Amino acid sequence: MSAESRPFALFGDVCTNVNEPVAMASKYWNMLHLSYAETHPKFATSDSKELYPTFFRMVPGDRNLIAARCHLLLSYNWTRVGTIKQSDEPRYALPHETLTTKLENVYGIRVLYTAGLSVDQIHNIGFELDELKRRDAHIIIGDFSPSFAVKILCEAHSKEMYGTNYVWILPGYHEDKWWKNVEETNCTQSDLEEVLKWHFALEFAPERPNIEMPVVGNKSVHQVRDELKEFCDHRRCIHDIHSSYAYDGIWTLALALNRTITDGDFLPNRTFEAINANAFEGLTGLVKFENNERLGLVYIYQWWDGSYNKIGHYDSAEDVFVIRSHADWTPPLDATVVVRERLYVSLFLFAIMSGLALIGVILALLFLAVNVKYRNHRIIKMSSPNMNNLIIVGSICTYISVLLLGVDTRVVSESGFQKLCYAKTWVLSVGFTLAFGSMFSKTWRVHSIFTNIRKDKKAIKDYQLFLIVALLLGIDAFILCLWAIISPFRFTVTVTETIHSKNILIVPELERCQSDYSIYFQVVFYVIKGMLMIFGCFLAWETRAVNVPALNDSKYIGMSVYNVVVMCVIGLSLTFILQERVNEAFALTSFFIIFCTTLTLSLVFVPKIIELLRSPRGGENQRYRKGMMKSMVGKNGADKLQRSLSFGADGIKEKIAQIEEENMKLHQILVTKSGELWDLLERLRQLGENVRDQKGSRGLCCVGAQLTSSGGINLNEPSIIIGEEMKSNSAVLSTTQNGSATQSIEKIDQTKAANDNGANNNMDAILPRNHLRKPSSEPTSPFDMKANNNMAKPSPSAYFSTSGLSVMVMQKPDSGWPWSDPNQPTTML
C-alpha cells in the first residue's frame, strides 16, 4: 500500500475481523476498500463515517433490512409490536436499537416492550415472554442468532405464543434447516415447526427477481449465472449467495475507474464520488450507493409446509415494496380487539314469560271474583275468604315481579334501573309474605281449633290472622328499609368470563343491582322465609287428619309448601350457578316463580270451586258432619294409636302410656257431650209435660239403634212414646256391653198416656237418670265454638249413649221423619 505504484482499490474480504483493521488503515492511504460480503452493522453506525471513510460494501446492510421490516408492518396495518434482541451480540443488538428508534420516531409504530437476552440470561426467556404476553404483543420481531432462536421459540411453544394469533418476524439466516438443532431444548422439531408456521424472515436477495432482464454487459441474469457456475466447476471456487455480489462488485470498481480516468489521467480523489454516483443494473438488482451503503434488494420469506417461500421483496434503491400473501393465511391483528357486549334478556324470552305472568294475573283475578261472589257460601265462608283475598293479592305481586325482572336499560335509564332494584325486591318479598303468610295463618287457626280442646277456648277471629300477616309484613319492611339505609342499591356493570376469538376479545357485561352488604340481608331473608315455610310444613302436618274440606286447606297448603321448598332450593342453586348467563337465569327464575304461584293458587282455590259446583247451595251437611267427627276423634285416637302399635315389643310401656292418654282425652270428650245430652233431656221432659194436654198423633218419637255383630247399625221402627196410640207394636232398645251381644230387650206395651205421671214414667223408662250426670253447661266442642256462627241452629234432637245404648230423640216435624230430609241439621257424637 505504501509502494509508489499502489492499487487504486482493495476488493474483499468476507470476514469482519479482516475487513475492520484493513478499513481502518486504508483511510490513511486514501484507498478505496470494497467488500462484497460484509454485513456487520458496525460499518453503518453514526461514527462509521469517521472510522471507515473509504470502506464500501456490496451486500445491502441493515439499513435495507430495517426499512423492509417497517414496510412489512405497515402493509398489514400492524402498529403495535414487541421485540426481542440478543443484547450481548452487537451484530444483532446494534441494528435492533436502530429498528426500534425508527419504528416509533419515523413510522409511528408503537414498541410495547423490548426483551434483552444474553447467554448469561438465557434462563430469563420465560419471564421476558410472559411480559410480552401480558402486554398483549402479537407481532414479535426478533434479532438473535440461530442457536438463540431455537431456545426462544421452544419457550414460546410452552407459552402458547404461536398460531393464528401470533406472528414472528426473524432474521434471514441463510442456513438450511437451522430449526432442527433442538438437542439443547425440551422441544421436538415438530414443536418448533408449530411456532415457525407462517412466520416471516427477511434477508438480502442473492439475485434480482427478474432473471431474464438484461444487466450490465448486455447479458441476462440467467446467462451470467450459467457462466459463473461453469467457471467454478473447472476451478477451485465456491458458488454461494455472495457470488452475484462479487460479480457486481467487479463491475462497480470497473465503472468507477472508468469515471475517474479523464483524457488518460487517473484522478484518485474522484474514486469515492464515482462509487457513490454509480447506478447500473446488476445481478443483484440496481446497484446504487448512498453514504457508502449499498441500496439493494431484500427478499421477504414466509414459512409453511416445512420450508421458506418467497412472497415479496423490497427494493431500497427505488423504495418499492411488493408482497403477495398466501391465500390460506389470514393476518392476525396486532392487538386483542376488546368488544364490550352488553348482555340483555332476549326479547322473545321476555315476551313469553311476561305473557305467562299476565295469564297468571288473570287467573288470580278470576279466583278473586269467585271468592268475593261466593263469600257467604259455606265452602268459601269457612275457608276465611278475607285471607283468601290476601293470598290472591300476594300471588299477583309475585307475577308482577316476573315482569320487573326482565326490565333493563333498554327500557329505563340507569337511574331508573337503580329504582327498579328496590321495586323488584319489595314486590317479590311482599308477595311471598302475603300469599304464604295468609295460608300459614289459616292453617294455624285450624291447628289451634282441633289440637287443643278446652271448654274455655275462644274462637280465633280474622283480625287476629290479619295481625299475624301484618307482623310478617312489618318484619319484611323493617329489613328492607334497613337494607336501603345501610347498603343502598346502585347500578353497576360487571364483566363476566371473556371469550377469545382469534385476536378478538369479547367482554360480556351484565347490568346488576350492586349492594355492598347484600349477601347478609339475603341470608336474613332466606332464614326468615325458610323458617316460615318450615313452620307451615309443621302446621300442615299437624292438621293433616282434619277432614273438613271447607275448613281445612292443610293438605293443599302442605303440597304448596313442599313444592315451593323444592323449587326454591333448585331455583336458587341453578340461578347462582347460571347468574352470568342472563337468558338462562331469567328463564329459570321466572319459570319457578310462575309455576309455584300458579300451583299454589290452584291447590287453594280449585278444590273450593269443585265443591261449589258440586254443592252450589251449600248442602251436604252429612258429609261435613262426618268429616268433623273423623277430625275430632280419629286424629288423636285411632291414627296415633295405629302409629304407636307399629313399634316393636320394646315400647310396650310407651304404648300403654299413649293409650291411657288417648283414653283420657276421649273420656273428656264423652263427659262434655254428656253435658249436652243432659240439656236435651231437660228439653224432652219439658216437651213431655206439654204433650199431656195435647190430643192427636203428634208427639215425641224414639228410635232405637242396635250394633250388629258385623259392625253395622240397625234402626228399629219408630214408636210414639208420648201422645196418642203408638204407630207400631213395640220399640226395641238394644244395649251392648264392650261389644258383646244384646243382653236385654225391653218391650214397651201399647198404651195411651193419660196423665203426666204416665208420660214421665215412660220417659224415665227410656232415659234412666242414673246413667247421666250434668257437667258444666259451657260448650266444649270446637265445632260448637267455631261453627255455631256459620251454620243454622239444629232442631231439638240429640244422639246419646247410656251403657252402650245409642238413642236419637228429636221432635217430629210436620213434613215427616227427620232422616227423610237430608238438609235437616243434627248434632252428632
UniProtKB/TrEMBL annotation:
Keyword annotations of the record: Cell membrane, G-protein coupled receptor, Glycoprotein, Membrane, Receptor, Signal, Transducer, Transmembrane, Transmembrane helix
Membrane spanning stretches: 343-368, 389-406, 426-444, 465-486, 519-541, 561-579, 585-606
Residues in G-protein coupled receptors family 3 profile domain copies: 349-628
Subcellular location: Cell membrane
Keyword GTP-binding included in the entry's annotation: no
Gene3D superfamilies: 3.40.50.2300
SUPFAM superfamilies named among the record's database cross-references: Periplasmic binding protein-like I (SSF53822)
Single GO cellular component term: G protein-coupled receptor heterodimeric complex
Domain of life of the organism encoding this protein: Eukaryota
Single GO MF annotation: G protein-coupled GABA receptor activity
Topology in the lipid bilayer: Multi-pass membrane protein
Name of protein: Gamma-aminobutyric acid type B receptor subunit 2
The organism of origin for this protein: Acrobeloides nanus
